[in-house]
Each structure stands twice: as structure tokens, then as C-alpha cells.
Design goal:
This protein has about 525 residues and is an alpha/beta fold. Helices cover about 50% and strands about 10% of the residues. It is built from 20 helices and 13 strands. The protein is globular, with a radius of gyration of 30 Å.
Length: about 525
């Protein structure tokens, strides 16, 4: 008996050693490069980096200052303090007068991302890392879109390239992943993009996407190419090759939230990944405030990068007047101390623990700008939304949740007292919104793995398979012509068309010759008849 237990013990030890050895073999040095100049996007990537460290990976993070993302235990941080200055400069920017049209907007966005990449690449700590011959990385993780110059890190370290699409998928993300002919196109900028319900809208959208491709090719990419040549390689073709080398792109979206799309294997949906980080708890005062909301509570918070000075005139007064005519208590995230706490129904602070608020059972409505993280959080906690979209992806996000029956949308720049009250009352008293929100939350949570576990599994899959080139759709295997069977149609109708053209040409020639012969005979017969 003792001998058998001893053998079993030895087997358990050997099994544990094998498992530990396997995990050790899968750990790797990973470089994460995030050029975000606002703190909100770091809310998405911070828990991902934490989980990688917990899995035993050695992670180095190049990012903005500590005010954007706090230090993570076990991570080597290289802070690019100048990204904070870029953020402050953006706060002083007058968007309404400086961006009159699409090409002006493209130029502004191009300059912004150029500066993001430039500040990263010229930072002293980053330059020291690049010149450190002992630094080796198996993987480089970065934001997928618009910072192409930073792809050079993957080339420099001969590492697998993994992207994070913080704003979800779009046509440019598809092309980076090798999905050059997706069945559903999505624009980079949703403003002006139609629903595509009729032929005219489809035609407009085709023109819209074509314009965006021109903008990307002739406005965005040249500025990034300039930086790439300066810091990595004078050969432009190498950057074009890098743009086709993404092993994996993690999409901050999920099909259950009304964004169904065709994805190739290296496009993986991980919307809700940031929910893996525990929410900040409610303060005792806020807990008591929400617990005492016998008629329910409303949470009002715009995007963290939306400054109060950018708000439309009298918006605060309109919202205060609307809240004053409601029975519900209101938690308001605002930086306006002059209007703060003038009523026992209002709890107004510059910072609020958003997820803990949305999780409270008395919160019935969330007034939001419809940023993607906010949409995901409200969907997870089954809270109906009153959306006030302003820019970037917010318009499409608002349209999407409104179609799902969990939200209403108002014009941010044309808010009226009656409109705000009517919108809130509709969400409060029409039970369909709460019912749809609960059903959506159930669907969203019904996944085989959590979004974070999905992200980590596929990240380590790429490490295990040395870049997982087999996941990428090879352009030659599925070109645009092949995807839409244009090659088959061109062969089929090309032959038929060529035959038809030959027949038409011969027929036309025969008829023409016959007519000319008839006319010639007629002219010859006229003198004879006259005589």
C-alpha cells in the first residue's frame, strides 16, 4: 500500500513538473507599445498586461506617464512623459473651427498620430532600449491602427506582431489582418456613413470608403513612413511588408452587441476584456445615496476625454433643469464645482466609480456619450442608455444600441429641456428597454471563455506556434477578385461577351455592306430609267 502511494506520489510530482515545464516553455519576453495620449484607452490594455504578467511572461511597456496608467507590479515601464504634453495641446484645440471638412479632419488626425509615434520613437528611454543588444522580445503588442511607424519594433526584434483595435473593427483593420475583401465594410470614421438600406446609400458608402482609402494612402501613411525610414529602415517596402504581418488583432467588440461581421482567424473579438479588472468600490456616501434612491437613479457621465469647455452653451443648465423635474436621484460626473451639490438629489464629482455605479440595482438609466467602453459596460450591467454621441465611433455605437432596443439617442448640440425629460421618461417607464437590456446582458455573458481568457489564449497560441502564420489569409489565396467570384464571372461573361461582340460586329459589317451595295445599284439604275 505504501509502495503504491509512493508510486502515485512520484507520478503526481512528474505530472506537476511536466505542466510547470510546459508553462515555463510558453512564457516569453513581450514588448507592449501604447502611444495613447489619453487615459481612457489604458483602461482597456491595463488588465490585459496584468494577466500576461500573472501568466509568467516578462513584459516591458512603453506608454504615457503614470497619470495615464499606474505602474503594474512585475512590469518594466518606460514612460514617455511628452505624451502628456500632446494631450494638453489637444485640450486647447478648437475642433469646430479647425476642421471644416473631411480632408482637414484627415490632416488633423494624421498630424496627431504622427506626433504620437514621433514622441515614442524620439524618447530617450525608448532609444536606449532599441540600442540595447541584450534586449530580445518574442512579441510586440500595440494599437493596430494609424501608428504604422511603430510596427518597426516587430522588425527590429524579429518578433510576432499583435494588434489591439481599441475602437473595434473597420476596413483598415481588415486589411491589416489580411481580410482584404470582407463581406461587411465598416468605415474608420462613422460620420457621414449611411445605413446602406437602399442602392443610393450603398453607392454613397462605396464612395465614402474609397475616400477613406485615399486618405489612408496619401495622408496617414506618408507621415508614418517618414518616421519608419528615420528610425528603422530606409526601405519603404519593409513597412509595407510589416503591414501584412499581423499574427493577431484583438478586436474590442463582440457580435452579441449588434456588430456582426466576418472575421478571418487572426481577428479575435474580445469586447469586455477590460471587465476582468475588479471595479472600484462605491464610497460609503455614494453607496448610501444610491441605496436611498427609492424611485431609482440616473447616472450621467460623458467621455473622460470630453472637456466641460467643449460642451454646448447652457447644456449644464438644461440638464440641471431636467433633473430637477424628475423624481430619480442623479449621479453626475462633472468638473463644474459651481453647480455641484445644490440638491440632495444630485451627487456630483469629477470622478465616479462607473462600473460600481452601473452595477447598482437602483440605477435605471445611463446618460452617455456612447464611447465603446461605456457601451460595453452598460450592456454588461443591463442598464438602458440615453446616448448623446459627438465624434469618432460614438454615432455608430449609439445607432447600434438603439437598434437593439436598449437606448434612445438625442442630438448633443440641440438638447432641449423637453427632449431630455421625454427621453429619460421613455427609458424609465417603457419596460421594453429594461427587458431588452437584460436579454442583451445574458447573451453577452454567454461565452465559452471570458473575453480576457480569450485574449490571453490566442496571444499564447501565437507564441506557441512561433507567429502562427497559418492563421493569416494569404492574399494570393483569396484576392478581391476571388472573394466576390469576379474571376469566374469574368471568364463566363467574358467569353459570352466576346462572342456576342464578334457576332454583333459581323452582323453590323454584313448589314453595312448590304446597304452600301443596294445604294450603289440604285444610283446605277437612275440614269437608265431617266433615258
Amino acid at each position: 500500500m505504501v509502495r503504491r502511494l509512493g508510486c502515485a506520489g512520484v507520478l503526481l510530482v512528474l505530472l506537476a513538473a511536466a505542466l510547470l515545464g510546459q508553462q515555463t516553455a510558453q512564457t516569453a519576453n513581450i514588448l507592449a507599445v501604447f502611444s495613447y495620449s489619453f487615459g481612457s484607452s489604458y483602461n482597456l490594455v491595463r488588465p490585459y498586461i496584468q494577466r500576461l504578467v500573472q501568466r509568467g511572461h516578462q513584459v516591458t511597456v512603453i506608454s504615457g506617464p503614470i497619470s495615464f496608467m499606474a505602474d503594474i507590479e512585475g512590469v518594466q515601464h518606460i514612460r514617455v512623459a511628452s505624451l502628456k504634453q500632446l494631450s494638453e495641446e489637444l485640450e486647447e484645440y478648437d475642433y469646430d473651427t479647425a476642421i471644416p471638412n473631411k480632408w482637414s479632419e484627415a490632416s488633423f488626425v494624421s498630424d496627431y498620430f504622427y506626433n504620437c509615434s514621433k514622441l515614442i520613437l524620439e524618447d530617450g528611454g525608448v532609444r536606449q532600449l532599441l540600442h540595447n543588444a541584450s534586449a530580445q522580445y518574442a512579441m510586440v503588442v500595440l494599437e493596430a491602427a494609424h501608428t504604422d511607424a511603430l510596427y518597426g519594433f516587430a522588425q527590429h526584434y524579429n518578433a510576432s506582431l499583435v494588434g489591439i483595435a481599441a475602437y473595434g473593427g473597420a476596413w483598415n483593420i481588415d486589411f491589416l489582418a489580411g481580410n482584404s475583401a470582407p463581406s461587411v465594410y465598416e468605415p474608420m470614421s462613422a460620420l457621414g456613413f449611411a445605413a446602406g438600406n437602399n442602392l443610393l446609400e450603398k453607392w454613397q458608402n462605396l464612395i465614402f470608403i474609397s475616400e477613406e482609402r485615399l486618405v489612408e494612402r496619401f495622408v496617414y501613411l506618408p507621415r508614418q513612413m517618414e518616421l519608419y525610414k528615420r528610425y528603422f529602415s530606409p526601405d519603404a517596402s519593409r513597412l509595407h511588408a510589416l503591414r501584412k504581418k499581423f499574427a493577431l488583432i484583438l478586436l474590442n467588440q463582440h457580435f452579441s452587441l449588434g456588430r456582426v461581421r466576418s472575421n478571418v482567424p487572426n481577428l479575435v473579438e474580445v469586447g469586455g476584456m477590460h471587465l476582468a479588472e475588479p471595479p472600484e468600490p462605491l464610497s460609503a456616501q455614494l453607496q448610501s445615496f444610491l441605496d436611498g434612491a427609492v424611485h431609482g437613479a440616473i447616472y450621467f457621465a460623458l467621455a473622460s476625454d470630453m472637456l466641460d469647455k467643449w460642451l454646448p452653451p447652457n447644456m449644464q443648465q438644461t440638464m440641471l433643469a431636467a433633473f430637477g423635474r424628475l423624481r430619480q436621484r442623479v449621479v453626475w460626473k462633472t468638473n463644474l464645482p459651481q453647480v455641484a451639490n445644490k440638491s440632495n438629489k444630485l451627487h456630483m464629482r469629477a470622478w465616479q466609480p462607473q462600473r460600481a455605479i452601473l452595477a447598482h440595482p437602483n440605477v435605471k438609466v445611463y446618460i452617455t456619450q456612447a464611447g465603446l467602453l461605456s457601451i460595453i459596460e452598460a450592456s454588461f450591467y443591463a442598464v438602458p442608455m440615453l446616448c448623446l454621441p459627438v465624434y469618432f465611433d460614438q454615432v455608430k455605437n449609439a445607432e447600434r444600441v438603439e437598434r437593439l432596443g436598449i437606448a434612445k439617442t438625442l442630438d448633443f448640440y440641440a438638447l432641449t429641456l423637453e427632449g431630455v425629460i421625454a427621453g429619460i421618461q421613455e427609458l424609465l417607464h417603457n419596460d421594453s428597454y429594461a427587458k431588452n437590456a437584460r436579454e442583451l446582458a445574458t447573451r453577452f455573458k454567454d461565452q465559452p471563455m471570458t473575453p480576457m481568457d480569450t485574449a490571453i489564449w490566442w496571444t499564447e497560441y501565437v507564441l506557441r506556434h512561433k507567429g502562427a502564420d497559418h492563421m493569416r489569409l494569404i492574399e494570393q489565396d483569396m484576392s478581391l477578385m476571388q472573394y466576390y467570384s469576379v474571376d469566374i464571372f469574368s471568364v463566363l461573361f467574358g467569353r459570352i461577351g466576346l462572342t456576342a461582340l464578334i457576332v454583333i460586329f459581323l452582323g453590323y459589317t454584313v448589314v453595312t455592306v448590304a446597304l452600301r451595295c443596294t445604294q450603289y445599284q440604285f444610283r446605277l439604275s437612275v440614269p437608265v430609267l431617266a433615258s
